[in-house]
Design goal:
The chain has one domain. About 10% of the residues lie in helices and about 35% in strands. The protein is built from four helices and 15 strands. It is globular, with a radius of gyration of 18 Å.
């Protein structure tokens, strides 16, 4: 097994972290069960939206994690409002650290046509405009090592709970979220280890002897071969 250290890696912020199959079953493009969706929380001003965001959970996530990030209930935005990154209440645990970015990044799913964003060089948005839409929020404390910060808070805006996944995406039945990357879906929704997900594909477990790779940390990738569904 080999370790590959990426000395000048600049972490890419990807809006939809993605998907896997041999984990909790593949639900590509399926419609979620509306009965599992809570009634939306209605906000009528930017101040009300910011107040709602003070209550969301922030989940540490890296390319090696296998914990499902917490997602908010549906939020119904009534009218037109704007939200700036500077308004996002960053958790105190981040503000207490010198290696954590103190300004949040905003990330918007391409499927949200009623949310318009102005992007910045860090891969997120400085400001978003929302118009009569229903969305959900997911607070991610992203491992961005070895960039300037080891951790960066990113507020993701994703489709409402009852929105069907697009073709090629994978629905997580635990929270009706859609994922476009197999590896992330396997780890984050399926809860499997990075070593196991490295030897899976949407078609199933890879044959023994297949080359495999997985992230160990923000700047280290480990390579190996699959044996009994595990990258070793």
């Amino acid at each position: 097994m080999f370790l590959i250290r990426l000395q000048r890696l600049r972490t890419l912020f990807i809006l939809f972290i993605c998907c896997c199959a041999g984990c909790a079953g593949i639900n590509s493009g399926q419609t979620p069960d509306d009965a599992t969706c809570e009634s939306p929380y209605v906000v009528q001003s930017s101040d009300e939206l910011v107040e709602f965001l003070t209550q969301i959970a922030w989940t540490p996530v890296g390319n090696y994690s296998n914990n499902l990030p917490a997602v908010s209930q549906d939020v119904r935005v009534s009218g037109i409002m704007t939200l700036a990154a500077a308004q996002i209440p960053v958790p105190q645990s981040c503000l207490n650290r010198m290696d954590c970015r103190h300004d949040a990044l905003l990330s918007v799913s391409p499927s949200l046509s009623d949310v318009i964003c102005q992007t910045n060089d860090a891969g997120g948005s400085d400001t978003i405009s929302l118009t009569d839409t229903t969305i959900r929020f997911r607070g991610i404390m992203r491992d961005t090592h070895p960039s300037r910060w080891n951790f960066s808070p990113m507020l993701e805006m994703i489709s409402a709970c009852s929105t069907p996944c697009s073709t090629g995406e994978f629905r997580c039945p635990a929270d009706n979220t859609c994922w476009s990357s197999f590896d992330a879906y396997c780890r984050l929704c399926g809860g499997q280890s990075k070593e196991a997900c490295a030897c899976q594909s949407p078609e199933g477990v890879l044959p023994d002897g297949s080359e495999c790779y997985f992230w160990v940390s923000g700047d280290v990738i480990q390579s190996g071969t699959c044996l009994s569904g595990i990258c070793r």
